[in-house]
Amino acid sequence: MKRFFLFLTLLSAAACAQSVSVIAPETDASLTFPTRISTDRPLYIVNANSVIYQDGENLVRIKADLATFRRSKEYDADFFALDKNGIYFKGKLVTPDTAGFKIVGQIRTDDYYAPRHTLWKNHRHIFDNDHIVKADIDVATFRSAYSSTDYYFKDKNFLYFGTQKIEGSDATSASEPIEQIIFDKNHVYIAGKIATYKGENLKPVNCNFFKTSKYVVNLQLQEQPHMDAATLVGLSRHYAKDKNHLYWQREKCVVPGLDLSRIKVWDQVNRAYFTDGKKVYAGTQYLQANLDAKTFGMLPHSDFCYDKNGVYQQQYNEKTKTVDNVKFPFTYGQPVSPENTFITVNSRYIIYDLQAYDPWDKKHYKLTREQVQLARNNQLDVAQIDPAYANLFDYKLYKHDGKIYCDGKDTGADAETFERLGGFYKDKNHVYRYLRGQQLDIIDGIDAASAKAMHYFIIDKNAVYSGHSKIIGSQGFEWLAVTTGHRPGCGLDKTPSSDFYILKNAEGFWVALVSDTVKINFLGRQLANAQMKQLGF
User: Fold this and answer.
1) Among 116, 166, 210, 216, which residue's CB has the most CB atoms within a 10 Å radius?
2) DSSP characters for 138-156?
3) Global confidence as pTM
4) pLDDT tens, residue by residue, 433-479
5) CA–CA distances in Å: residue 519 to residues 25, 162, 471, 474, 506
């Protein structure tokens, strides 16, 4: 009986956590010091006693303060780092003043091969790459007009084409840019200049049309003679109307008997609807027969709509070959209305009555009135209603009730000491790799107590690893450079990505080819002077 119980215990443990062993590297004598050191991505390499910046063929060894050195955590911030000495851009110390550091964005260019200009700021100045922008710009409010890479930027007062101020522009009413076109309440601008047509300044209608007192034109400045300039008004991004017709994008809305005086539109994200108070239509003319026009509305910043009978999302019906409005699975009682239905500011939950629905994970929750109020204030944390998210590490990997679970199953990992290790995890006993949403595997052969993350590597007291593949010994380890290897060209290219690394440890210098396997070759105790120069020494 005891043997049977032991067997069941072992079987249970095996089901929760599997293991993989460290793989020794293959020695490949054909690997040599690269004739050209170049990387396809900018990065700061932080070793125990050195910092190196690499970008393309540029390699710089930085005299940084290792105790305070850190890479910027801002989005698209690979060019930047900070320490007590100041802000570094592409390895160069640009300013000692780190207060208010923020990346504004990159100036877009149509020339793919042109040098990129990154705009950033501290509390005093705007910078273009490594120099101060000498322009009258309000630093505190200066930002991109829309995306992280754009032609247009703005502060509290004006629009800018790059860093060139557009005199007379109004930042507060600026539209989203459409390539090199942007408009505000006063003008249309093309490539930073006020746009005209036949000697008259263009006025914005919406994202599809502009007009003068006599003419209507599209974004390509082509006349639209069927549209009446005098009465044409924009209703939304893509809806407009004149005395004769309603338009969506560049098309007429061909609905017989449409009462233009009663038109109301909704136009957001990927959906557009209009109603004349009698029926609801999508786009130009597609009748939404199951929706009630009098109570129809859309949840802000979403594709979801509602009427008194329910909250809906559109789904393609494979059987009928139609796009249907499908109700979210609430328990419906009282009529749906803006008073009892809303979407949270972060778009995570749709709230109806005392219920929440997560349309992304397709989960339904019951709420208290206090939780509904938290949701209205965008303060409802999923951990408050679903224990699986209370301590979430990754998709389906979480801590609950003193255990670590993967997809609802106990992994057997020690919950008290479980923590992230770069792209891996560890506890007091083991280092783990996580197969996302599937299982947590023990990596046998890595010392958990001394294991730490370094960029893409794991380092313990014995060795340096790429995943569960050993590279070289860790004593005196220093990563000196990386050279881009293979990158898959298309979906048919099954060769895995790879990179070549120049490394050093107590034994000497090494070259390593790291892919789904690891190959290494020892280069010797010393390198040639020309090679050391390539490495920035």
Assistant:
1) 210
2) -GGG-EESSSSEESEEE-S
3) 0.84
4) 999 888 999 999 999 999 999 988 999 999 999 999 999 999 999 99
5) 5, 46, 8, 16, 19
* CA 523/CA 528 separation, integer angstroms: 10
Distance of CA 137 to the CA centre of its chain: 28
Pairing of strands 439-444, 18-21: parallel
Query: Beta 216-218 vs 233-234: how paired, if at all?
Result: unpaired
As a whole number of angstroms, the distance between CA 229 and CA 243 comes to 10
Instruction: Identify the pLDDT of residue 17.
Output: 64
What is the torsion angle, in degrees rounded to the nearest 10, for the CA atoms of residue 212, residue 267, residue 380 and residue 308?
A: 140
pLDDT in tens, 255-285: 998 999 999 999 999 999 999 999 999 999 9
DSSP type of residue 32? -
Report the distance separating Cα 180 and Cα 174, nearest Å. 13
Residues in Cβ contact with 308 at an 8 Å cutoff, skipping those fewer than 6 apart: 292, 294, 295, 335, 336, 337
Question: Which two tokens mark 146?
Answer: 């829309």
Under 8 Å between Cβ of 276 and 263: yes
Q: Are 313 and 304 in contact (CB under 8 A)?
A: yes
